Amino acid sequence: MLGNLTHTLKNEWLSVSVREIGAELCRIKSVKSEKEYLWDGNPDIWASHAPVLFPIVGELKEGTYYYEGNRYQLPRHGFVRNNPKVQCTDQSESSLTFSLEYDEDSLLVYPFRFRLSITYALDGPRIVVQHRVENLDDKTMYFSLGAHPAFCIPHHEHESYDDYYLEFAQKETAARWLLTGKGLLSGETEPVLNDTAILPLRHELFSEDALVFKKLVSSQVSLRSKKSPEVVRVRYEDFPYLGVWAKPHGDYVCIEPWLGVADSADTDQQLINKEGILELDTGAIFNAAFTIEISE
Predict the structure, then answer these.
(1) Do the beta carbons of residue 296 and residue 285 sit within 8 Å?
(2) Is residue 251 part of a domain?
(3) Residue 65 belongs to a domain
(4) Taking burial as the number of CB atoms within 10 A of a residue's CB, which of 24, 216, 233, 266 is the most buried?
């Protein structure tokens, strides 16, 4: 399932593997317990582990956007996912860096000269995932960025999916932004959290696609079980949006820090007007990081 081109980091807490194709994190294994925390990418359910989202997050209306009068098309979440042009450009005992740079093919679907670098670094029981976007163009660059790690649950045979819950760092009163059947923001919301830090997990929670949250108070969320001590903690200060998702009946949950969201159903499809779109000046560099911590 991991593919042939993988790179591995290991310390006394964790063993972490990253696929060179797409710079995709594909294994988080505890050295102590030998427990695997990342979803295995079962193709019968969902064939990914933790895709990188760039230069868009989510779905475009009709798969299309417009920039300076020209029409472009991109698949959901952009073109880094499963991209064989990503290369491992630096490796040390504690970190791996992967890069993707614009080329003639990318300019056909995304008219900006860019360099995207993603560094995975081990820091004790934590994985620091650092994103660096460079504008190599002579014009302002527009982009979104996001992560999509899927954590497998349950961790033990005596547990069920419903034993798990997400615990936010602070109490939240928040609604999910509902998606249409085509993956677009409908403009409607549904209450989910009412002065609570706890979101119980159940398969039915994802029957209508992802839970999309905007501007949560918390910048940290933990995946916990009522029956075991292990904790997966995701910290995402640099990301204003959060997605929570799984395929119905998939034994995993994705905790997704986002800088951007899917198109609205009523979008004018102009890239510069897209919600959450970021602007990067000529020659400028943008950085954003999140961390995954495993506690046992």
Answers:
(1) no
(2) yes
(3) yes
(4) 24
Question: β-strands 64-67, 70-73: how paired?
Answer: antiparallel
Q: What does the pLDDT average to over 112-118?
A: 98
**Number of domains into which the chain is organized:** 1
Q: Is the dihedral of CA 59, 61, 62, 66 positive or negative?
A: negative
How far apart, in whole angstroms, are the C-alpha atoms of residue 259 and residue 146?
6
3-state secondary structure 179-205: ECCCCCEEEEEEEEEEEEEEEECCHHH
CATH number at residue 195: 2.70.98.10
Structure tokens at 287: 């950085």
Nearest alpha carbon to residue 216 among 245, 188, 196, 231: 196
Range of the domain at 199: 6-295
28-77 tens-digit pLDDT: 999 999 999 999 999 999 999 999 999 999 999 999 999 999 999 999 99
Q: Is 213 inside a domain boundary? A: yes
Q: Is the CB of residue 3 less than 8 Å from the CB of residue 27?
A: no
**Whole-angstrom distance, CA of residue 257 vs CA of residue 259:** 7
Per-residue model confidence as pLDDT tens digits over 120-132: 999 999 999 999 9
| Sole residue written with tokens 């960025």 | 145
1 lies in a domain?
no
Q: Is the pLDDT of residue 1 over 90?
A: no
The strand pair at 145-147 and 52-53 is best described as: antiparallel
**For position 2, what pLDDT does the model report?**
46
Q: Mean of the pLDDT values across residues 215-242?
A: 97
pLDDT for 234-272, tens place per residue? 999 999 999 999 998 899 999 999 999 999 999 999 999
Cα–Cα dist 13/290, whole Å: 19
Neighbouring C-beta atoms of residue 254, cutoff 10 Å: 23
The Cα 271–Cα 196 span in angstroms is: 36
